Amino acid sequence: MTQPILSLSATELEQWLADHDAPAYRRRQIWGWLGRGATTFDAMRELPKSLRVALDADFRATSLRSIAVSEADGGRTTKTLFELDGGHSVEAVVMRYADRSTLCISSQAGCPIGCPFCATGKFPFGRNLKAHEIVEQAVDAERVLAAEGRRLSHIVFMGMGEPMANYRAVIDSVRMLADPEMLGISPRRIVVSTSGLIPRITQLGDEKLPVTLAISLHAARDELRDVLVPINRKYPVNDLVEAAQAYGARTGRRVSYEWVMLAGVNDTERDARELGGLLKRKLAHVNLIPFNPVEDTPYHAPDRKAIRAFKEMVEAQGLNVTVRDTRGREADAACGQLHERVMKNKLAVS
To answer: Is 91 a catalytic residue?
Structure first.
């Protein structure tokens, strides 16, 4: 099997071109075509025929293989399940809005964190994605959107996996995504989420990449967060918020705190009061996320009235709060759900 071309660094690809008597500027043309969604080297019409043939002999345009697609919201939400080299699979979700197109991207096949309300953690952890496999998800999204006359404008690392547990590949992929010769997506339009790996949050502050940091919070007291986000037992919530706010202070970027709303679990007046106390007078934004139902879990989404009441209680304590637009329930859009459905079907057949 040939090597995915995006697994080469710019320097490596330019060296390959030199070895094939091609000028270095051809690398920028190749990246440009890939960034525009080219799926074959023959489609790269600026390149000489002989170079296209040589590229096709040595490389693949992508290592991802689409094995399932589901749509929702009248086609505004599309989830694709990709098979990776080696057989693992990951999801990517494209969400179309009036003013932007956002990709929810995966960084691991599965997730080692084990949050009990998340479908991704219900299957054994597979492996970390390589940087090029992360970028290829975005390249595919750009291809799909370009056919609709749209452009990929925003990326959120909120798909399968814990991005900070695959730190180097995630950072390398962000730099490639931001490269104007590839997709040219500003880091300010990229969100990197974490369940709370404090050393990596600190390291992220040293990267000089002004990405938005999102903390998967879900509870404001250790007793509850130990259950909902098990890594809290190693990195307690107060230490986590301190590290996140240090990142915000260093970068000037407001930190987003994600709160999946679970009926009767974290949507009470006590939870709102604790959340307000935890983030009071901090450069923070609270993003409330109505729970997308996941089979074989005891959790349920609160009704709209309960969500609105919780939002108002948190806002009354001086915090900025939004409720995320719930997308793609019929598209298995909650993290890991399309993967779960396909894997169950495979097991049933076998």
So the answer is: yes
